[in-house]
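Long-time lurker. I teach an intro course on protein structure, and each term I like to show students one example going from raw sequence to a predicted 3D structure in token notation. This year I'd like something fresh instead of my usual example. Would anyone be willing to generate the tokens for the chain below so I can use it in lecture? Attribution to the forum is fine with me.
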Amino acid sequence: MTTHRKDIPVVILAGGLGTRLREQTEFMPKPMVPVGTKPILWHIMKIYSYYGFRRFVICLGYKGDTIKDYFLNYRFRNSDFTINLSKHNDIIFNKSHEMDDWQVTLADTGMKAMTGSRIKQIEKLIDTDCFLLTYGDGVADVELDKLMKFHQSHGKIATVTGVRPPSRFGELRIEENQVVEFGEKPQVESDMINGGFFVLNREVFGYLRKDNECTFEREPLEKLAEDGQLMVYHHPGFWQCMDTLRDMDLLNKYWENGVAPWKIWE
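-- Reply from a regular --
Happy to contribute to a lecture. Here you go:
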């Protein structure tokens, strides 16, 4: 049976401490740090939504209640309304701005869990043969329809999107589009690094553990590469994470100047 794109879950890792951006993350989780007037998490979800994905599973941890509160009040944040305080706070929505057709599952995966543990913990929420995964702090103009076609074409368990910013993330050593080695801390600058925007088959859960120390970018991805089950989708276009205050300022300058390359929606 064919699974429609709108039914494929998008898992977003949103539970980390964000220590390099402590100027902001002391008060909020990094995915809630704003770009323009909206959290970067919203920008990420709009990218996926543009390509027809509407189901989101957000893995919460540090200050997860802030993300819960955001979505609980999402309609109020995006609408004009009248509230009658004398009648049990009756609310009339006068003007609702266009609402996003999203189904959002907020899953508390613990304060101390590493990325692999968070993904393993939401296994029961994945009811499709494959799902998408990304981090809650990076935006790109990745063509997700082409990414999906690439993943379906090679028949392997995992696809990672490879990008080319300054190399301080997981290095990908590639032979003919197959990742032959995954190095979390590269010794030299690499051609491509892990840009997130994964497509994963359910078999990936067999590579994960629930204990807090399970880090997706280490043993699981390294073992997938060793088993010949990790492919790379080359993305030569825009990609930018929000890892530091400088990154945050850069993304906001793009947005304020009306030249944000990741804004593919109207």
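Some talking points for your students: The domain at 5-76+101-256 is CATH 3.90.550.10 (Spore Coat Polysaccharide Biosynthesis Protein SpsA; Chain A). The CA atoms of residues 32 and 38 lie 8 Å apart.
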